[in-house]
Amino acid sequence: MKIFVLLSRFPYPLEKGDKLRAYNQIKYLAKNHETHLCALNDATLSKNHIKALEPFCESINVINLTKPGSALNIIRAFFNGNPLQVGYFFSASAKRKIHQLINEIKPDHVFCQLLRVAEYVKDVDIPKTLDYQDVFSKGVERRIGKSPWYKKLVLKTEYRRLLKYEEKIFSYFDNKTIISEPDRELIPHPDRNKIVIVINGVDVDFFKPMEIKKEYDLVFIGNMGYPPNINAAKYLANKIMPLVHEKLPEASLALAGASPHPDVQALENDKITVTGWMDDIRESYAKARIFIAPMQIGTGLQNKLLEAMAMKVPCITSGLANKALEAIPEEEILVGNSPEEFANQIFRLLGDDQLSKKLSENAYKLVHIKYNWEGATKKLERLILNSKS
What we know:
alpha/beta; Rossmann fold; 2 domains; seven-stranded parallel beta sheet; 13 strands; 46% helix; globular
């Protein structure tokens, strides 16, 4: 089967969750199918980035978006009622190019990741699958209460538009997928139960235990320019760590990941390290005694937790993040829902080697059994094959 994959971002390097998901889905779909990649792009791409996808793709097309063009398209979206992020990623010239590619390639199926690209193919008369991935409307809603006043109006408007768009776009696609059941329940459509859950996985051949000297007590890893990660980093540094330092004055924390926002950079001090981009992110996991992801906003499954678990680093997270992960509290993970609870869980793990070992071993088994990319993508593959005209 010929599969045309349409993405809002080029799926490499793997510093964002949507890129990681797309990369691995393409990798496994390519084992049995002729895969053609078309990706929008608003960043700098190197030849090495494109080479990373060449083993899996029959063709690769990158459509560059310009900042002035995207700004103009946001204004158009404001007046036509579409979500602003849909407007950001849409351009008439890109649509013409995408339709030209589809006419030339003649795919059997079009696979779209994220509603940001739905406008390009919603009327294309070919079987189509849309990967909602996360519930954008809920993610924006959770940001409203934690944002400064001057952002609240924009976020409230975007929230209402996303709610309408998530429902509207549903009927244009033959199949819909999403990462987790909690996310599916938040999609504002009466037939949301028809959305198929296709979980994320973790590359257990890459993310595996490493023997390396411990340098930090705690680490939080993620794209540090992404609002839910910025929020979590600030919550961790400003709310949780002061409580930890009352009892353990020398406790250290690393905030590791690409594109640290100025608010994250400002958190650095003699006990908190902000690393920025890491050539091998596995070292950041392995250098820490505990991985902590105190997510307060955002949706979807946290890949960072899967990676830490695959490396046998004991994990602490919020109830919000564990909803999608579905790890067993006290057996595979520890959960906190307030600064005091998080601090207490940190004290427990740092002071109890047996608990740390139990959590690490059980979590390691969890990701190997449930969260592997090949198994997850087989479900997507069956869905695509069953919708063949």
